[in-house]
Amino acid sequence: MERIKKIALFTVALLLAAAIIAGCGQQKSGAEKQGASGGDTINIGVNYELSGDVATYGTNSKDAILLAFEEINQNGGVLGGKKFNPIVLDNGGKREEAMSAAAKLITENKVVALLGPATSGATMAAATMATKYKVPIISPSATNPDVTVDPQTKKVRDYVFRVCFIDPTQAIVGAEFATKDLGAKKAAIIYSNSDEYSKGLYKVFKEEFVKNGGQVVAEESFNSGDQDFRPALTRIKDAGADLIYVPAYYGDVGKIVNQARELGIKVPMLGADGWDSPKLAEYAGGAANLNNTYFTNHYAASDPNPRLQDFIKAFKAKYNREPDAFAALAYDTSYLLADAIKRAGSADPEAIRNALASTKNFDGITSKITIDENHNPVKDVAIIAMVDGKQTLKKKITH
Amino acid sequence: MAVFLQQIINGLSLGSIYALIALGYTMVYGIIQLINFAHGDILMVGAYIAFFGVVYLKLNIWLAFIISMIGSAILGVLIERVAYKPLRNAGRLAPLITAIGVSLFLENGGLMVLGTEIRSYPAGLITSAQLPLAIFGIKLTATTLQLLILAITIAMMIILQYIVHYTWAGKAMRAVSYDPDAARLMGINVDNTISVTFALGSAFAAVAGILLGLYYNTIHPLMGIMPGLKAFVAAVIGGIGLIPGAMVGGFALGIFETMVSGYWSSKLRDPIVFLLLILILLVKPSGLLGKNNTEKV
Amino acid sequence: MRFSKKNLLSLAGAILIYFLVYWLQAAGVISAFQEINLMMVGINIILAVSLNLIVGFTGQLALGHAGFMAVGAYVSAILTTNLGQPFPVAILAGACTAAVAGIIIGLPTLRLRGDYLAIATLGFGEIIRGAANNINYIGGAAGMIGIPQLTNWTWLYLMMVLTILVIVNFLNSTHGRACVAIRENEIAAETMGINTTYYKVLAFAMGAFFAGIAGALYAHYFYLIQPATFTFFRSFDILVMVVFGGLGSITGSIIAAAAITIINAALQDLAVLRMVIYAVLLIVIMVFRPQGLMGTREFTLDRWVPKRGEASGSAGN
Predict the structure, then answer these.
(1) Smallest CA–CA separation between C12 and chain B, in Å?
(2) Residue C272 lies in a domain
(3) Is C226 within the bounds of a domain?
(4) How many CB atoms sit inside 10 A of residue B175's CB?
(5) Structurally, how many domains does chain C consist of?
(6) ipTM of the assembly?
(7) What is the mean pLDDT of each successive set of 10 residues along chain A, which is 399 residues long?
(8) Which of A191, A226, A255, A263 would you mutate first to test chain B, the one with the most B CBs within 10 A?
(9) Minimal CA–CA distance to A143: which of A252, A273, A46, A53?
(10) Which residue of B has its CA nearest to C112?
């Protein structure tokens, strides 16, 4: 027995050593590739949540990034044939690991730019390293306004960029669409009081809608997960609203739409990217209930833009599943980076940063993107209309 | 009043699922005093077995239930043999750590093998219709799925009670949980009895996993973590180690949770659930149905 | 603490390590990646050693250590960021608040035994996190951003040595022996006239105090803290370090905390596979060495400073 134990312990030790060597070996092979090909590759850091509870976001983003770089490399790379070498590290959704992964990518793998992480918290942690070493970092999907602008000093973080619009943008565009396109004058808002996202959109929408000459006739709040919205909806009906704004996630939205239609409320309903789910029609009690509803989103899968459709096809072919908004945004981020390197004419981090900051009308699959002075994108917000349960692109509004 | 009764209906569905999971926790705890942290992840595996059965083998949902129960039972026994059995005499912390290890293994192995995407069972597996109900003239709605969840849970509980009280294996389980050494002296194969317990508990978890997948319409490799933890809380509230305790605890927790999110805030739901747990433990440390036994010296 | 040859040697060693790392850092030999992980090693050592006091030496299975860490992190961050207090005050306040939280939680729950205590402390950890999620003053779910980076090697090392020194000396005192007696047999300890509640709460409060220090160091190194940073998974991680190193072995906790942190960081490029490897290692090591790396032994200098006729405490068998 004692011998078995010793053998087992030895095996474990070996396994451990092998794992560590494997870890180091992989880095080396990356570095060697760079060395061997005489600086013909450009190392890009891909720092994502690949394990832990937000692994879904990170994996979709990472897969899209790898797809994008593969395509760019196949098409001849950048700067006269230089190929991208994306180096992927997992941060497990932990702040300290996002930071240490960023540090490792910058100092040991000598990456010229960092892509990711997917969530705002991890992005802010990784961004501290990017700022320290003056390497640009682009998050495809971090929506917190503080990611690119320091909330205390109100100064822009020089090396931090993003490709998604921040939450208030959606509400501003939503209000514009409501007044101009839907001709709404008296809006009702029903929002989740237990959710920052919902509360944030509610505040901005109300301000903008009033600014546009409308009037908010009813404001109702609920808690995410509530089952019965009939009392609130009845009050909204009595107030004579001609539009209902529902900035919430699809689970609650479905129930609200269902019960509103049940109560005979026929006015248009408008929401935000939280509505984006194939499950929405099911929760709403059938596709018919969703007619005359709209929501703002990062992109529309039904957008006829051939590059978007090619991306969807390529992603499905490679990974055997549908891409989501995270994947689409990450794909744009990779091409934006390649574009910035081309415009900079060099793979020097400082030059890339300057090129990123001066991005104008970059032609992405989600939208044309211009980076503003706060390093946020000026881009199209897609307005999606639900028609018989299908998402159809109603229009795009640039903001 | 209508709202209140409606919340009870919703709470009962969630509570049924908690109760099914809690049964597995409590049986394992009753027999080897181990908090099997991997139990919630067995639920996930069960949900995925059924998913693959339904989607790729085009199985009938009921057949998928049975295959998933068998598959999960085998997994449960395997986990017990590999990770817990060698540690039966190694104190209580070492098996707890391997349980955490098994849990991490199933979660991350799941993310690696099954992928990170959220999937859902094909629509129309179980006809989900709104059923109008009237209790004392108050109009309420329940879905067929909600009734089905409740019916399956009650049926499973009756089966379990039968197994535990009227079969040889059940008697052996009770004997081992009461005193493993005496049971061994009486000629009971303790190892096999423990395996049977794991198999039963895991099969129940598989059912819970499928019901959870149907109820929330999503399955994901990490879907078992929170329900697993909540079900453990339910088992403790009811009195851990006691089968009726797990049922009572499960239903109580399900209804309580729905009430908190219904009347107060879903954001405060989890902290309040844990607060309730602690309060119950302080007032009655052995749970609602538990007897206070004095520590043996 | 007597100034024996051994103690002086330890002291000299500790000072030497400090200056060695300080000099390496000043010379730029330590990369940013290594520095971050050095910090995490230090913070994890503080957490593991303090949890070992509760779980390993006093025998109380607590699963809420991340909660105390959160208290220390938030209180210290509020003091420096919002109220402009100096860092030492913030560390002390964070640690004391965590200790008070430990007493508040410990007094009622420590009469629960074994697994009930485990689930109650896990619950408390989640309550603390849930509360942080709901308080707008500390940023709610988005957390606190822009905490000044005040933690450096000096502070980290000072706090780490302080933690180890205080806990080792505590364990070698009457109080420490009382705690070990409670672990060995609570009823016998009570019969011998030990106030078990007092000592259990004392150990709990001390553990929480140092977890609070670790939280303060964490908050002031990583700039931002969020409730999601302090989930029960972090409590599990710390427990794994303690059990892996050996319950009742301070040096075991130190070695395990360092080893697990470094292995975790080294495997970052294996993505989710790294967590699978971690899980398999955890199972295999526990199955074949349930007492942990060191068991209850300590790795001592006796090995290198032999005294005639004294048995040496060696690592493992």
Answers:
(1) 36
(2) no
(3) yes
(4) 17
(5) 1
(6) 0.86
(7) 52 53 43 47 93 85 95 91 93 89 92 92 91 94 87 89 90 93 92 79 92 91 73 86 91 86 89 84 82 91 89 94 90 95 93 94 91 91 89 85
(8) A226
(9) A273
(10) B285
